[in-house]
Amino acid sequence: MLRPIPHNERLADVRYDIRGPLHARALELEQQGKSIVRLNIGNPGRFGFEAPAHVREAIARHLKDSEAYCHQGGLTEAREAIAEVMHARGVHEVGVPQVFIGNGVSELIDLSLRGLLNPGDEVLVPAPDYPLWTAAVILNDGQPVHYPCPPERLGLPDPAEIERLIGPRTRAIVVINPNNPNGAVYPKPLLEAIARLAEKHRLVVFSDEIYEGLLYEGAQFHALAPLVRESLCITMSGLSKMHRACGYRVGWMVASGRIQAARDYLKSLDLLAALRLCSNVQGQWAIPAALRGPDTHSALCRPGGRLYETRAALLRAVARSRHLRVVAPMGAMYGFVGVDTRALPGFDDQQFAYELLDQRQILIVPGSSFNVAYRDHFRITLLPEAALMERVIDQIDDFIGALVQRATPRVA
Q1: What is the average pLDDT across 216-229?
Q2: Whether pLDDT at 228 is above 70
Q3: Which of 350, 351, 323 is nearest to 337 (CA)?
Q4: pLDDT at 243 over 70
């Protein structure tokens, strides 16, 4: 017999259900000729959104200039445009050397944690989180420690709870604002409290701001970098969401705050960036055009805009449902929907997602995939048309009703 090839045992603790077994099951059903309503992933191009013309044209103009490797940190022109954004926020210590461009924020999450963590180091991560953060901590020999952001607090954390989780091995705190999956937008006083905690305990702050411009109903985004002065702040953003250019794989991270105290860490980031040579050059030409060009995303989030109307449809459908609830997302492009499980003993969000997919051909992401302890939520994207969203929520509510009926004992 052939001896099985071993694998990295740390992967046993890693989950990414957004493209995991449920996604594979959806592909099987499609191969059987079934049509799947895919609500599992925030991929604008699959729902008819397009990157802005001026962003696309910038890449086309520079195709000939994209045939060689660039600096490991990225194109100078692109890094200068990113630094300009930070300067406009009052973060004047940022220059080109503090900007790193990657193949999406996903690559940079991994790279930034690899440069920081030693075995056993802890990172504070929100619950719910974008699961790549938890996965990347684990895969880089760290230990994720989740701080709760429950629906009862509109998806926001409590700084006092966060501080109680800080120990001698805590190295960093992750903030996802606006949050994926729950759509919470952090008020400035909360961000200031988190910044003071980080400074008090000498924690690196990772601020994931990829959805910074997708805001609803007057919500205001506040960047963390201007608030973190006595510690190191790593700000992450990119073109995938606001500029609807997921496939370009363009993200960036910016170091600010106590840069001099972080010289060795920044050298490690430069080394890790050099080891992968550089990120794709074509997509980087889109950065100056995107950051200096017209705002094409805010209108999507106002009345009449595609995301606004789909969000409104979600809220209407949930309000009239018998079995669902949701905290209105104030940012990003998702709804984190709760299920009333009082009549469903033993309800499990993973099993529910499989049954919904098999019986109604609707693909969602179980809430526990986002590293929360409760198992009565699921995430859906707001990218479909409003009419489809309303129909799907009605269908999910009807499906839960059937489960309740099946679970209710019959009276003789």
Answers
A1: 97
A2: yes
A3: 323
A4: yes
Label each residue of the chain as H, E or C. Answer: CCCCCCCCHHHHHCCCHHHCHHHHHHHHHHHCCCCCEECCCCCHHHHCCCCCHHHHHHHHHCHHHHCCCCCCCCCHHHHHHHHHHHHHCCCCCCCHHHEEEECHHHHHHHHHHHCCCCCCCEEEEEECCCHHHHHHHHHCCCEEEEEECCHHHCCCCCHHHHHHCCCCCEEEEEEECCCCCCCCCCCHHHHHHHHHHHHHHCCEEEEECCCCCCECCCCCCCCCHHHCCCCEEEEEEECCCCCCCHHHCCEEEEEEECCHHHHHHHHHHHHHHHHCCCCCHHHHCHHHHHHHCCCCCHHHHCCCCHHHHHHHHHHHHHHHCCCEEECCCCECCEEEEEECCCCCCCCCHHHHHHHHHHHHCEECEEHHHHCCCCCCEEEEECCCCHHHHHHHHHHHHHHHHHHHHHHCCCCC
Band the pLDDT of 411: cuts 50, 70, 90. Answer: low
Closest CA to 173 of 104, 234, 236, 259: 234
Name residue, tokens 């500029």. 243
Token pair for 14 = 């890693």
For residue range 57-85, what is the model confidence (pLDDT) as tens digits? Answer: 999 999 999 999 999 999 999 999 999 99
Q: List b or e across 29-43, with b for residues whose CB sees 16 or more CB atoms inside 10 angstroms.
A: eeeeeeebbbbbbbb
Mean pLDDT of 350-378: 96
Tell me which residue of 43, 99, 41, 38 sits closest to 249, measured CA to CA: 43
Q: Report the alpha-carbon distance of residue 7 to residue 173 in Å, rounded.
A: 29
Asked whether residue 18 carries a pLDDT value surpassing 80, the answer given is no
- The amino acid present at 20, given as its one-letter code, is G
Residue of 32, 71, 89 lying closest to 358 (CA atoms): 32
Cα angle 75-46-56, degrees, rounded to a multiple of 5: 35
Q: What is the mean pLDDT of residues 193-215?
A: 98
pLDDT at 412: 53
Q: How far apart are alpha carbons 264 and 121 in whole angstroms? A: 17
Rounded Cα distance between 85 and 103, Å, is 20
Which domains are present in the chain? Answer: 9-50+299-406 (3.90.1150.10), 53-292 (3.40.640.10)
